[in-house]
Prior knowledge:
Largest sheet: 7 strands, mixed
Number of helices: 14
Oligomer: single chain
Distance between the termini: 76 Å
Number of strands: 7
Strand order of the largest sheet: 2-1-3-7-6-5-4
Structural class: alpha+beta
Helix content: 55-70%
Strand content: 5-15%
Amino acid sequence: MSMIRDLRAAVRPRPSLRKDSGSYDTTRDPGTPSAVVDCAVYRDGGRVETRTPLTPHEAMRQVRRDGGFVWIGLHEPTEDEFAVIAGEFGLHPLAVEDAVQAHQRPKLERYDDSLFTVFKTIHYVEHDRLTATSEIVETGEVMCFTGRDFFITVRHGGQGSLRALRHRLQDDPELLAKGPSAVLHAIADHVVDGYIAVADAVQDDIDEVETEVFSPGRKGSPRGTDAGQIYQLKREVLEFKRAVSPLLRPMQLLSERPMRLIDPDIQKYFRDVADHLARVQEQVLGFDELLNSILQANLAQASVAQNEDMRKITSWAAIIAVPTMVCGVYGMNFEHMPELHARYGYPVVMGITVGLCLSIHRILKRNGWL
């Protein structure tokens, strides 16, 4: 089918839209509850236009009367706001509690008449220079309730807007005709595509830190990058890892196990999402290992630099010990000391002192201590 062949192109963001996909669109319909960003009925692959914005109750009445499915988008609803929608669609109390409280791990839970899916969204934070306090990634959450005739998204955080994705899906009637499972796939693909973009940006940061650690500084000595920068980057990568790794198993389940709420024509395309997610996971794990190596190398360089400084200090102390010894000997108040009354005693002693210092300096220089 042409719809299936073009599925990836339909749900992938266009280049002009990717730039704005990370920001949250605060536009809300004035006639709906404050948490509802959009509420619409889709029938035969198209959005059913209405004169006034629909409430979730009105949208569900239309679906039960005329068919189709309703897609409701919410942003950070309160417990009371979501309780009304949960009662209307018969959502499981445990899933409702997770959706309101947020801060959940990516997961997939199956209930009698719905699927509950949690995605972690990742947004790369642009910065001029990496510091020990730089924020590299921002996280948010998208929670999806998939039913036979409804699809509900609950978003937390300022990232992960689905408005542009909704518009792209509305431009593909064949895809929307597949029902709520097509929307679930589109969101999963959208989230994983965001992971890929963030991974590429984080790779650039790691390359920059790696170059800074191993590039020579002044006079050929290592510059010694601040370990706090590396540690901060490692913490941000860990946050990225927490979003990516737990999601792999849910994507595999959606692609491998038949589910009555997932259209068979759509299910096979979850394999592609799982494959992309697996590659991102491998990349993130590689980031973690590489940062460990960079941190160890930076600490080793700092240790080597300290050893070199101690060798130089020790070398100069050895050189200064010669005139210190001579001055100490001739500073004693003995009457009968050699060369005290000799005409050329002073220049001879000074010449011997300077000669010894130059000899020690040459020896230390030859051995690489200076």
